[in-house]
Amino acid sequence: MAEVSRRPPLLSILIALAGAAFFLVPLIATFNFSLRMTRGELSFAAYRSVFESDTFLSVLGFSTVASLMAIALGALIVVPTAYWVRLRLPHMRPLIEFLSLMPLIIPPVVLVFGYVRLYGTSSILPLTMTETGTNILLVIGYVVLSVPYMYRAVDNGMAAIDIATLTEAAESLGASRPRTIAFVIFPNIRSAIVSGAFLTFSISLGEFVITSLLNRPAFGPYLVQMGQDYAYQPAALAIMAFAFTWVCMVLMELFATRRPGQRLLQWRAPRTVEKAKS
């Protein structure tokens, strides 16, 4: 029988090219526009203008710190929750998964107005009356927005390991449940946590609604304000944000494709582990 050559269908190639052009053509046009700040030549003057701005460095630093705090708080909430649901409450998984999708259903503007009403001047805990309290609300808002992505990343990471066996092994060596989560579960799903962390960081860095309504000096409102006042600098900021997001996506893919290592109880002394094996 003659071997049939496998050629990719022409229609699939055309659809892929059309999809790529739909994303790449506006991106190339934006990048080309960002290089035309100096009349008659292509230059990176708009990028230099952005980096020389003290406001840019300030809002970028604020957003970075807030995003990192949201990543830490989200991991501390999501990892024990996903661990306990998989270990002891498997029948609750559909409900937990549904609840984790609520931030995608409820608009952020509703969420932030709820914060203002709940923690405003007439509440028992008026967080919006102080700068620190408002920053705490901002971080909590970032955590809520990132829950759908962080939870699924962590849950998929736990599906790749045998958490029941790891928990039994840790408990047989005298580990408490918090110690098991911190020194056994966390190291084994670190790639999943990193994937969720990159998604959280990219979402928090460009978030506008919550940040703007809480009046915080972050990157999202700064980008919108630059778009109202300047022509070329917003295009440069958009390209920089796009490049940063793709770097996060590439790093997420690299960490996500690594299989979780079976780290067993490194918090114990090697002699104790050898004694347990024998």
From TrEMBL:
It is a multi-pass membrane protein. GO terms for biological process: transmembrane transport. Its main location: membrane. The chain crosses the membrane at residues 12-35, 55-83, 95-116, 192-214, 234-256. GO terms for cellular component: plasma membrane. It is found in: Cell inner membrane; Cell membrane. Signal peptide: none annotated. It comes from the Bacteria. InterPro entries: MetI-like (IPR000515), MetI-like_sf (IPR035906). This is Spermidine/putrescine ABC transporter permease. It comes from Puniceibacterium antarcticum. The lineage of its organism: Bacteria, Pseudomonadati, Pseudomonadota, Alphaproteobacteria, Rhodobacterales.
